[in-house]
Amino acid sequence: FPGTVVMPGTGKSVYKLIDYVNTYKDKISERFPKTSAAYRVFKDGIRNFFQDVRIYSKVAGTVRAGEITKLSWKEIEVYNRTPREIKKIAPVLLISILPFANYVVFPIAFMFPKYGLSSHFWSQRQKEEFGTEHYKRQKKITNNVIDLVNHKASQMAYPKANGLAGIICIVRNGGTVPLSLLIELKDVFKQDLALHRLSNYHKGQLCKLYGLKLMSAQQQLVKYSILLRAMDESLSKHGIENISSEDAIEVCRMRGLNFMNVGDTYNNVLRDWIHLSSHTDEETCSLLLHSPMFFINGSH
């Protein structure tokens, strides 16, 4: 896992931003009382963003050393998410260094939070709205993957084709697939549906599902599956029931799972995912990476 380099000046920009908040917080509350809720979101966002950057900087070295299994599920989650968050907010932070730029750049960023701010600065309503949009895109890609797997199944010999086609039929009819049937498919995903046997378009769809770069798609997917399995192992020890709803949503998002059904529904899906993950390895990682299609209708 080559560590993602934090953009130069990011740390300095965050410190300047915190200083700006401390200097002008009274003026903001006094002059714009109606925006006090937004101000609190802004202040908390700065604190949480800076905390994640520090965790990421620490964890990146451990990952580069090949010791990812030593990390907690939360550290892996932050490691996966933070580069994307930095990339989104970095332009705002860097521009804020310029004299008086704070007065212009942040109001504009708050007008377009989805594009100019990381999730640390989103309100709860915005998180739900943007989260719904994100899952709709993921679900569309998952349906594309189902079509691609179905096409591959039509080229396979009996009985492998029959078993896979039966599972796809269950999914398309809105049913949930028993884990025992999925585990029996390991050899199919180790052979006919192994990553190196997939078309570039198929691998590209999987990359889009997980938010990975399309360049060197197979390598990206293998690395991501290692990250997921390490995280799943840690989650298994920690217990799904012991993580917050907000963390559970991000865990689901990383896996292309439906995180819009709050409560026991996604907890059950995560438990099933982790159980399936424990039966996969690098040779059968394709099964894990295709799993969102099997859980698209939820869990038992």
Automatic annotation (TrEMBL):
Keywords associated with the record: Membrane, Mitochondrion, Mitochondrion inner membrane, Transmembrane, Transmembrane helix
One GO CC term on file: mitochondrial inner membrane
Classification via InterPro entries: LETM1-like_RBD, LETM1/MDM38-like
Membrane topology recorded in Swiss-Prot or TrEMBL: Single-pass membrane protein
Pfam families assigned: LETM1_RBD (PF07766)
Entry's localization field: Mitochondrion inner membrane
UniProt domain Letm1 RBD: residue ranges: 128-300
Gene Ontology terms: biological process: intracellular monoatomic cation homeostasis
Protein name (database record): Letm1 RBD domain-containing protein
Species this protein is from: Argulus foliaceus
